[in-house]
Specification:
The structure is a single chain. Helix 3 runs parallel beside helix 6 and helix 4 packs across helix 5. The chain is built from 7 helices and 26 strands. The strands form 7 sheets. Strands 7-4-6-5-9-8 form a 6-stranded mixed sheet, with no helix packed on it. A 6-stranded mixed sheet has the order 16-13-17-21-20-18, sandwiched between helices. Strands 22-24-23-25-26 form a 5-stranded mixed barrel. Helices cover about 20% and strands about 30% of the residues.
C-alpha cells in the first residue's frame, strides 16, 4: 500500500461523522461542554431602566443651576422599586441596580450631594440619561445569545445564568476507548525488566481525550496475544471511538491486524505520508471509528492532535480550529522527503526585530517525549519541501495539549 497523503487520511477519518445526541445538564455541570441548541433571552436585560450608581434620581432640568435643593420623596434600594413619580423639585434616593422611578431622567451621584433630613442639596449639574442603564441595554428578549457548537466557559455560563436558564442542552461527551498492547510494556509504578519500558501513551491519550471534551475508557494494557487483544477490542465495542496503541506493524508481529481480521474489522488504511506517525491505521465498525496509533509516544500524541481532535470535535458538533501562526525559521532546514513533516519547535521573540522565531529541536526522534513536552508548536513542512535557510517564513501549528 502506498503512503496516503495527510489530507486524504483526515478526510476518510471524518467522512460521514455526525454529532452525538444531546443531553440536558445543569449550569453547575456545564463547564467545558459543547452547546447543542441555541439559548435565547426570555426578557430584556436589564428588564427596566436601572441606576448604575448610588445617588439620587432626579429630573435633569431641575439640576442645571446648582447648588439647588430638592425634596426626597422616597428611597429605592436594589430589589425595591420606588412606586412614585418624580415631579418638579423632587428626588428619590436610589442605589446601584434599582429601577429608575417614573419622571426621573438622570442620576446625581451621592458624592455630588449633601443630605439634610428630607432635603438633598445638589452641588453639580446632572446630564439627562447619565448613569442610567436603559432597558435592554445588554440584550433584548428573543435574541439568540449562545449558539450551538460553543464551548461553555465561565463567561458563557454566567450569561446563561443571567438568562434564567438553569439547564442547558449540550452534546453528549464522546466515549473514547483506549487499548495499549505490547510485551515490552509495564504500567507506571511496576518494576520493568531490563528489556521493558514504561507504558505512558494510554495516560497521555486519556488526558488528551478529557482535555478535548471526551470520556476516556481504559481497556487496559494487553500482552502481545491475539486472543487478549480481540477480547479487549470487543469490550470497547460501545465506545464512539476506539484507540489502539502499537502492535500494528503489518508484519510478523501485527497482533492488532490479526485481531481485527478475527473480528471481521476491515482496515481502511494503515500508512500515511507523515512524520511522525507513518504507521497510522484507520477502520470502522458500525458507528465506531477506530484509530490505530503508532507505539512511539510522540507519534501517538501528534496523530491524536491531527486526527483524533477533529474527529472528537465533529462528534461534539463544534468547529475544530487549531491555531496556526507565521514565524521566521531560526536555523537552516534540509529539503524534505515524500512525507509531511511535523517538527517540534520552540518559539522565541527576536529582541531586535520583535519577530517570532521558530527554533526546531536538533533531534526529532519520535520516542523523545521531553522535546514534545517543551515544544510550543509543530512546524509543518509539506512533502518534498525544498531546503530552507534561516529567516524563511514558516507555518507553526500551536500545541494546546
Amino acid at each position: 500500500m502506498s503512503l496516503l497523503p495527510v489530507e486524504e487520511a483526515l478526510r476518510r477519518v471524518l467522512e460521514g461523522v455526525e454529532p452525538l445526541p444531546a443531553e440536558d445538564v445543569s449550569l453547575r455541570e456545564a463547564t467545558g461542554r459543547i452547546l447543542a441548541e441555541p439559548v435565547k433571552a426570555m426578557r430584556d436585560q436589564p428588564p427596566f431602566d436601572a441606576s448604575s450608581m448610588d445617588g439620587y434620581a432626579v429630573r435633569a432640568e431641575d439640576v442645571q443651576q446648582v447648588p439647588v435643593e430638592l425634596r426626597v420623596i422616597a428611597e429605592a434600594p436594589a430589589g425595591h422599586a420606588a412606586r412614585v413619580s418624580v415631579g418638579p423639585g423632587e428626588a428619590v434616593r436610589i442605589y446601584t441596580g434599582s429601577p429608575v422611578p417614573e419622571g426621573a431622567d438622570a442620576i446625581v451621584i451621592q458624592e455630588h450631594t449633601e443630605r439634610i433630613g428630607d432635603i438633598v442639596r445638589v452641588l453639580k449639574p446632572a446630564v439627562k440619561g447619565r448613569f442610567i442603564r436603559e432597558r435592554g441595554m445588554d440584550y433584548r428578549a428573543g435574541e439568540i445569545l449562545l449558539a450551538p457548537g460553543q464551548k461553555l466557559g465561565a463567561r458563557q455560563i454566567n450569561l446563561a445564568a443571567s438568562l434564567n436558564a438553569p439547564v442547558l442542552r449540550v452534546r453528549r461527551k464522546p466515549k473514547v476507548a483506549i487499548l495499549a498492547c505490547g510485551d515490552e510494556l509495564v504500567l507506571p509504578g511496576e518494576e520493568p525488566r531490563d528489556d521493558q519500558i514504561i507504558a505512558s501513551n494510554s495516560f497521555g491519550l486519556a488526558a488528551f481525550v478529557e482535555q478535548h471534551g471526551g470520556i476516556p475508557v481504559d481497556l487496559g494494557l494487553q500482552p502481545d496475544d491475539v486472543d487478549a487483544i480481540a477480547a479487549a477490542i470487543e469490550k470497547g465495542r460501545e465506545a464512539d471511538v476506539l484507540i489502539t496503541i502499537g502492535g500494528a506493524s503489518v508484519g510478523d508481529y501485527d497482533f492488532i491486524g490479526d485481531a481485527f481480521e478475527r473480528l471481521g474489522i476491515a482496515r481502511d488504511f494503515w500508512k500515511v505520508a507523515q512524520r511522525p506517525g507513518k504507521p497510522l491505521m484507520f477502520a470502522r465498525r458500525d458507528h465506531q471509528r477506530i484509530l490505530g496509533l503508532p507505539g512511539n509516544p510522540v507519534s501517538a500524541l501528534v496523530c491524536a492532535f491531527i486526527y483524533l481532535r477533529p474527529l472528537m470535535a465533529k462528534l461534539l458538533g463544534t468547529a475544530m480550529t487549531p491555531r496556526t501562526i507565521r514565524a521566521q525559521l531560526a536555523t537552516d532546514l534540509p529539503e524534505n522527503d515524500e512525507r509531511q513533516d511535523y517538527l517540534r519547535v520552540r518559539l522565541q521573540t527576536d529582541e531586535k526585530t520583535g519577530e517570532t522565531l521558530a527554533l526546531p529541536f536538533s533531534r526529532q526522534d519520535s520516542a523523545m517525549l521531553k522535546a514534545l513536552a517543551q515544544a510550543d508548536g509543530l512546524l509543518i513542512r509539506p512533502p518534498f519541501a525544498p531546503a530552507l535557510p534561516a529567516g524563511s517564513p514558516v507555518s507553526v501549528l500551536l500545541i494546546d495539549f
